[in-house]
Amino acid sequence: MRNVPFAQQYQILTYIIDNLKRFYSGSFDARGNGQMIAELAAQKYGQSYIHQVMPTRQFYMEYMPKYKAKFEDREILIPNTPDILDDHRLVILDKGVPSIPDSRTSEGGGKKKRHGDSVIAGVMVVHAQANDDSSYQPYKYEPVHVNNPWGVKETR
Length: 156
Fold this sequence. Notes:
By secondary structure, the chain is an alpha+beta fold. It is built from five helices and eight strands, in the order αβαβααββββαββ. The strands form four sheets. A two-stranded parallel sheet has the order 1-2. β3 and β4 form a beta hairpin. α1 runs parallel beside α2 and α3 crosses α5. The protein starts with 5 loop residues before the first helix and ends with a strand. The model has no long low-confidence stretch (mean pLDDT about 85).
């Protein structure tokens, strides 16, 4: 979301997650601008549901091949748009590790720059899926009020 204030990005995110019927896990790139939104999402939905990822070389070495395999097996399909295709063409092997170079591409041939964001989004989906802990269930309880011998209500 270009030129959208962080507060509105967070509102959009919570609206989407709150309306997903089967939300079970999400991974966020928690570097730079994404850190605040990732942190707020983890606070709202729980650390077991929201993964705050700081991508490293090791992260790319582990998850880029998994993304590529799902992509090749057609488990993940992408829109046939110039920007998203260009994002995927950016991926290079750097000493055997798939990564996105620091260079940027122009969006739609214009002046706005892109940096492989749709690739990172796809890799985050694979990370969320691989790190799903759907066995986690939040719990709630109702306190039981009892009278102690001194006539004061206690909660147990």
